[in-house]
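User: My advisor, Dr. K., asked me to get a structural model of this assembly before our group meeting. I'm new to this, so sorry if the format is off. These are the inputs:
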Amino acid sequence: MRAGSADGSGMAALTLSCRLAAHPDSRCWFVAWSPSGALLASCGGDRSVRVWGRQGENWVCQAVLGEGHQRTVRKVAWSLCGSYLASASFDATTCIWKKTPDGFECVTTLEGHENEVKSVAWSPSGSLLATCSRDKSVWIWEVDEEDEYECVSVLNSHTQDVKHVVWHPSQEVETTRDPSLTLACQLLASASYDDTVKLYREEEDDWVCFTTLEGHESTVWGLAFDGAGRRLASCSDDRTVRIWSSDEQGEPGVACSSTEPSWKCICTLSGYHTRTIYDVAWCRLTGAVATACGDDAIRVFEEEPLAEPQHPTFALTAHMSRAHAQDVNCVAWNPAEPGLLASCSDDGEVAFWRYQRPECC
Amino acid sequence: MALLGGLLGRLLWFSGLRRGRHAPGTQAMEQDRALEVYDIIRTIRDPEKPNTLEELEVVTESCVEVHEINEEEYLVIIRFTPTVPHCSLATLIGLCLRIKLQRCLPFKHKLEIYISEGTHSTEEDINKQINDKERVAAAMENPNLREIVEQCVTEPD
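Assistant: The format is fine. Below is the predicted structure of the whole assembly, which you can bring to the meeting.
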């Protein structure tokens, strides 16, 4: 099914390679690739997590993690080493699963949030985990070598339901303005029903929210940093994607002490999506930006090559208008294979796509 | 023969233009769909009173708007008027409307539900909640809320 045929429009850039009834009679809320790109985890309204692996041209279910949660599993995240999966659930808990030769085993259940956990993410360092909830808070957990988890911070910066958390991709960030300011500084971003994005970092042993990104006119559902961590994409119920950048001079990095970086919105993609945008994914390999929309479509955007770094423009390079039979909830680029995109939907299906970059990119 | 067919065709196309931007059949389809929607929602029972939403005039035929998105898919917009300005009741009615239509509406649709303007002090807050599908899904996993909704939407035997 090519994008140029009856159900798509225009560009022949996105083709379907496989479709799975991953969570039958239920909705599939999220998909996440393992760090090696060999496995895909999915989760949904049937309260389970499923892990899929390739078998020739097809994807088959290799494990079903069904006994961990009492309610919908909203998101899943792989640890950087690929040995653990974390699952965030409406039952207010986060389960940590360890990969064993026989499958997956639940090794810990993190409790503490007052109600639904909406997102979970592992830091690039591997030693921290972040969760967020409808209780308006973001929690940061530290994990030690014995797989013991301890909550080290509860951040109450948002005024409403927190929908998503993502970590900045780098462990260490340099500023070219002052090489002596190379710091091991992890940065966390959160998206909320309060229409804002907040950024957090550790300052003197305490986690703080150091900036709030305002501009969206409704709930912010998804976030994605670009590969270098210089820019952040956010997507919203206001039907736009916003690109935020950390440095006015166009230099990379986020200075963690004396120089205060200011994050500004440098680009807004509007007029493309006809309903809520639930997810945005920024490919580390190609720079392509994919979106998951409530109008059942998947769209891909690429930055115009000749634009200035601080005033980028993005062109729509692919539009699969009936990617799924219902709302698309998530899109995820494979970390190892350029152009391989996974998506999932309220129709309970997971789909795999091949994205062919246009000649100009 | 061909000339007559051509003239007729042009006449039909022109009359379609006068009625609006859609093809002549669309408006009729939209009205049919709106009636289908109303038929499903009017029998929903109020969470507090032993009456239907129609009896209490929480919903009326004119509160349903349907627009064709593309062939076979419609945007359904409902504006309801809660009987009392109580926040949680309004949210509950919104939930009932969404759940019943999700289950019973046979045609492909996208749904937006709003409190009719000027009927509530926190209508923006309520509208945002009832149109947030994640919040709706989580609410339906709450056994108490689910029980109330089931009682409101289930047709009596």
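One thing worth pointing out at the meeting: Chain B touches chain A through ten residues (CB under 8 Å).

User: Perfect, thanks a lot.
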